[in-house]
Amino acid sequence: MTLQVSLRNLCYSRKKCIVKKAKIVIDFFRGNYYNVNMNLNKFVTNDEYYTPECLINPIIDFLQDKIIALPFDTVESNYYKILKRKNIVKFIKYENLIKEKESYDIIVTNPPFSFKYEIIDTCYNTQKEFMLLMPTLALNYNSYLKKILDYKLKIILFSKKVKFLNKKKDAPFTCHYLHNLYALNDFLILNPEGEEK
Ligand SMILES: C[S@@+](CC[C@H](N)C(=O)[O-])C[C@H]1O[C@@H](n2cnc3c(N)ncnc32)[C@H](O)[C@@H]1O
């Protein structure tokens, strides 16, 4: 019985994987190379670190009355769970952020870090507000700093290292929000709840 059930699960996961790979091939032939890269990335790198509540609660006040686009989230995401309490939140596909820009006010998320430069470009090109959670290590890279200067972006730093959630093993990271919120200063420091990890 157990064996039967797990075999069925295995077949289901394999089927999902085959469907996903087929979609990537179709995207490729449609000339959507960027989308192909991002989707292939899911098979080769680990961008699966999920945001803990303590990095979302401190930004709620900046989002009052805004319609929030979540491009890299599901109903499992803490962004969705927390922000839907006070805001209208919409799952907008990353590829549609520009096309559907009239339907939201701000993009908020922890994006797949492997595509940080393309994602910053896309968010900037929407001409909407955005808040992207990024690892602080990025601030040591010339190309990242160039984006900040070129796009006149601002930074919210957190005063401690916190644990990001991963299906296999949680891991501590220092991080910051890269954003363009007109109402905020260029540089802010927030204090997440809880112990340093
Ligand atoms: C760093 S995780 C963060 C997830 C969630 N935003 C959070 O904060 O908990 C980035 C997520 O983006 C997903 N992702 C990568 N490429 C994507 C794409 N093209 N469209 C939608 N999601 C994508 C990854 O699978 C991963 O779950």
In short:
This protein is of the alpha/beta class and 197 residues long.
* H and E string: HHEHEEHEHEEEEE
Q: Regions with pLDDT < 50 over 5+ consecutive residues?
A: none
| CATH architectural group of the largest domain | 3-Layer(aba) Sandwich
Taking the alpha carbons of the first and last residues, their distance comes to: 42 Å
* CATH homologous superfamily classification of the largest domain: Vaccinia Virus protein VP39
Cα-atom radius of gyration: 18 Å
Please report the number of helical segments.
Answer: 5
Outline the secondary-structure elements.
Layout: H1 2-29, H2 33-44, E1 67-70, H3 78-83, E2 88-91, E3 106-109, H4 116-126, E4 129-135, H5 142-150, E5 154-158, E6 162-164, E7 171-173, E8 175-179, E9 187-190
Parallel strand pairs: 1-2, 1-3, 3-4, 5-9
Antiparallel strand pairs: 4-8, 5-8, 6-7
Helix pairs in contact: 1-2
This protein binds S-adenosylmethionine.
S-adenosylmethionine binds at residues 38-39, 42, 47-51, 72-73, 77-79, 94, 109-112.
Explain what this protein looks like in three dimensions.
The protein has about 200 residues and is α/β, with parallel strands linked by helices. The chain has two domains: about 45 residues; about 140 residues, Vaccinia Virus protein VP39 (Rossmann fold). About 35% of the residues lie in helices and about 20% in strands. The chain has five helices and nine strands. The strands form two sheets. The protein has a seven-stranded mixed sheet with strand order 2-1-3-4-8-5-9. A two-stranded antiparallel ribbon has the order 6-7. Strand 3, helix 4 and strand 4 form a beta-alpha-beta unit. Helix 1 packs antiparallel against helix 2. The protein is globular. The chain binds S-adenosylmethionine. The site of S-adenosylmethionine has 18 residues, from helix 2 and helix 3.
